Fold:
Amino acid sequence: MEKFEVFTAVAAPFVHANVDTDRIIRIERCARVARKDMGLWAFEAERLMPDGTQNPDFILNRDPFKSTGILIASENFGCGSSREMAVWAIAGMGIRCVIAPSFGEIFFGNCFQNGLLPIQLPHEDITAIQTQLLNRAATNDHQQISLTVNLIQQTIVTPWRHDYSFHVDPLRRISLLEGLDPIGLTLKSLPAIEAFEAQSKGRRPWIWTHPTLPA
Amino acid sequence: MTARTLFEKVWSQHVVENLALDVDLLFIDRHLMHDLGGGDAIFQIRQRGLKVRQPNLTFATPDHVVETAPGRTGGIAPWADDTIALLRKQTHESGIHLFDLGQNSQGIIHVIGPEQGISLPGTTIVCGDSHTCTHGAMGAIAFGIGTTEVQHVLATQTLQQKKPKTMRVEFAGKTPPGVAAKDMILALIGHIGTAGGTGYAIEYCGTAIEALDMESRLTLCNLSIECGAKVGMIAPDQITIDWLKDRPFSPKGDNWQSAIQYWSTLISDSGAVFDKSVVIDCSKLSPYITWGTSPEQVISVTQTIPLLEEAGSSVQKQAWQDALDYMGLQAGQQIIGTPIQRVFIGSCTNSRLNDLRLAAAVIQGRQVANHVTAWVVPGSMQVKHQAESEGLDQIFKTAGFEWREPGCSLCVGANGELIAPGERCVSTSNRNFTGRQGPGARTHLASPEMAAAAALAGKIVDHRNF
Structure:
């Protein structure tokens, strides 16, 4: 997994409540698009025109937000389906950090599995950042709308000199900072898993014993 | 000993190792898999040189991409046959039990888990699908996971999980006639919102829950994720035990005796402390139906669509306006009388035998409106055969419904079965998201009785007066 330490990029306001993962990536794409191409289909219904060209009205298709690497989203971002392709799609657009007041819980967990950092900030802070970005968009100056997300210090530095601090669960933070592989980590606990299984077979045999099935 | 919740009792039984303050390595008793990504996940871990650690605790079925037309043998979507073939190959080579197409046991994974007796009280159950919360109705901690976590479970039979907070939702009183489990849970979602349960494991309790049959409990728990909660569970009782007895995978003999003895301890102790508590008065409920593009945008069928001024924030107001534009509806209008073109009775929410019985009772002797295309997609082969033995298929077919084969179908359209742009569908499924049933499709979530009545009337009606 790609490490996440300090990341500076253009940030875009995405002011929609309850953005669900169906909206982020359609189910047909999950079924047949390769992981590396998933970004092409992110937010398909609003980002692309019926003929497949870019919709000029979609915020991430417009200057200065075309090169967005940080999404400033609204409440309950990523709710709904567990499809991890929603994270792949967003990451495929070059976005490595989503900041929102709240997230769909499965999406939130999936982000950490893919080197994408989801950050929770209070609603008022999100609104303030979104407003600043919208106001500064007219300058078309990327520096005016670029944020620096520092996972080491857990801070967000803005060009308007109002900085924010955030908190990430310690285990998840270390995994991202070091780019750790969760399966590899857990396999180090193999003796504990084996001991649990042996004890479980004695304590709850019905979990383990399946009856003979008819053919 | 301190009083503990049902959730805490089950969770603590599965902790392999404590990893951090509130993070545990949790043992997984039941890993359920389906065709959309299941075969690839097994392939991925094998590519890494790992193998499926406990194939005996892993179960799979094709449901998402399979066609549901009568007589189907695979899928119509261009990706379907490869996807199913990959699941077959990978499960076979790894020794995982597959409930395959053509077998008497295939169906939607969240229907067949409980039906086969795989989903048991006191277990941890995961699946790469957010509606895994359905199995919580059996008294299990059951939740949906992403692809990477699916691989993690395959390789280690565990997950690193943050322990959620607990929420007690009491459905008090007695529901009036014509009010279903679907209405109860839609009422809760309308009340606490689509993020109201985020970060919590919900325990549903109260007299109205105790009165629900097993299938209705599965419907209710199925929508836990629509209020944000990964986990929604109900303490097992005699209804649970009677329902599980003699299922193909249910414990047998001495194991059955020790299991039911253990299950009887799976209740929240009196005095157990929950982090949050909500009470819904069921005596005041009526049939519910969604008007927008989020399950929280829901009203009683007798109500009018809310006015934009009633929105709690500017973001919510915008979301309501966007939803109304997409749905082709006006703020303040009656939902009753809205013309519809499609009806879908199916999905892991409402495709079980009792759902079909209730819908058939509304339909019997009447005809689907001329301009409506109406489908029944039974949740499993078992459900389909039982319904046919009761003659329910004939009632549906005579009325003008299509009687189809089991699968996820129009709930999510992963098999290429879609609602056309602009068409309005009353659906017994779980999500009314923009484009969920197809690009431009307009979805109204409701109970099977509401869907059946809408099919006959050709418009949204209150099934109690129809």
User: Anything to note?
Assistant: Chain B has three domains: 6-162+241-257, 165-235+269-284, 290-465. Residues 6-162+241-257 of chain B form a domain with the Aconitase; domain 3 fold (CATH 3.30.499.10).
